[in-house]
Amino acid sequence: MKLKEAAGLIGAEISGDPGVEITGASGIRDAAPGDITFVSAKKYANEIRNTRASAVILKKEFKGLAANSLIVDNPQYAFAVLQRILYVKPRTAIGISEKAAIGKNVKFGNDVNVHPLSFIGDGVSLGSGVTIYPGSHIGEGVTIGDDSVIYPNVSIYGETSVGRRVIIHAGAVIGSDGFGFVNEKGTNHKIPQVGGVIIEDDVEIGANVTIDRAAMKKSRTTIGAGTKIDNLVHIAHNVRIGKNCLIMAQAGIAGSTEIGDDVILAGQSALADHIKIGRGAIVTPQSGVFRDITGGEIFSGTLAMPHKTWLRVQSIIAKLPEYINRLKELEKKSQRRGSQNDG
Fold first, then answer.
1. How many angstroms separate the Cα of 238 from the Cα of each of 97, 210, 215, 253?
2. Deepest of 103, 143, 218, 227, by most Cβ within 10 A of its Cβ?
3. Ramachandran region, residue 123 (left: φ > 0; alpha: ψ -120 to 50; beta: rest)
4. What would the pLDDT profile of 41-89 be if each residue is shown by its tens digit?
């Protein structure tokens, strides 16, 4: 496409030659002639002059640094839009494979794809444009909304509702039993897990994520609309996650915890059970949270604490050897004075 066409697709102002041909998209260091790239952070501004890209998407403050550029408020988002146009393959309609196992009373919308070796249970409802890839198990009574994609080897247990435009990557397990046991006379007895799971619209669930069903019959573990979950995350029974949250790899959320909208949980962070995380809160990597967090706070460390307190603690830890030496000097001086007084 011409640079002029790209500008129209993302609503950008053009600087340079509107007729330059764009054939691909790449990072600023890997870009070749024909590629378009982007710069959104000041630390990469110096690389604009050295890139081989034919055009650069950038903010107004960097205008003039590239021979050809598209000027927008959010270069990374604009780049993602063009990447989708340049590289995402159109969906191929294959219909319902004869090698798939289809239960009774299954409802299909228009243009549904069910690949070979997938299992669709009794009473399942698949919306228009849904794709089920090979090896996936869709349990009895599950509903999946329009244009959702279920990648290979996903297991979705019964009592699960999946919204529209949801993407579930390979190996994810939705609706398995929560970790519920009660001890009686030294023996751990299983508490039946009979609730369900609700995945709202526009959620993306990474590879090998596990989301447990709620414990009680009328309860639901809930993932709010627009939330994105990275690979290898565990979400326990009765958890309620708000809208537009970001949950990164290897995070773990224990049972019945409630998370507000726009929360960010960084990699390997962990939340204890039955706590509340306020809207817009951020938990930094490898942090463990054992109490409620109010909206907008940033928590770090294990045990997690207010971020400013954590920064002070880290500063003190780095100076501990110096403090120990000073303490030893004080002890020596104290001992010398004691000896002099005794003499």
1. 35, 13, 7, 10
2. 227
3. left
4. 888 888 888 899 999 999 988 888 888 999 999 999 999 999 989 988 7
| DSSP character at residue 61 | G
| Residue whose structure tokens are 């809207």 | 279
Question: Is the peptide bond preceding residue 320 cis, with omega within 30 degrees of 0?
Answer: no
* 154-180 confidence digits (pLDDT tens): 999 999 999 999 999 999 999 999 999
Distance CA 316, CA 158 (A): 52
Structure tokens at 278: 């306020």
Measured between alpha carbons, how far is 325 from 108 in angstroms, rounded to an integer? 74
Name the pTM for this structure.
Answer: 0.85
List all residues 6 or more positions away from 257 whose beta carbon is below 8 Å from its beta carbon: 236, 239, 240, 271, 272, 273, 274, 275, 276, 277
Give the active site residue among 137, 189, 237, 274: 237
Tokens 């063009």 appear where?
82
Whether 237 sits among the annotated catalytic residues: the reply is yes
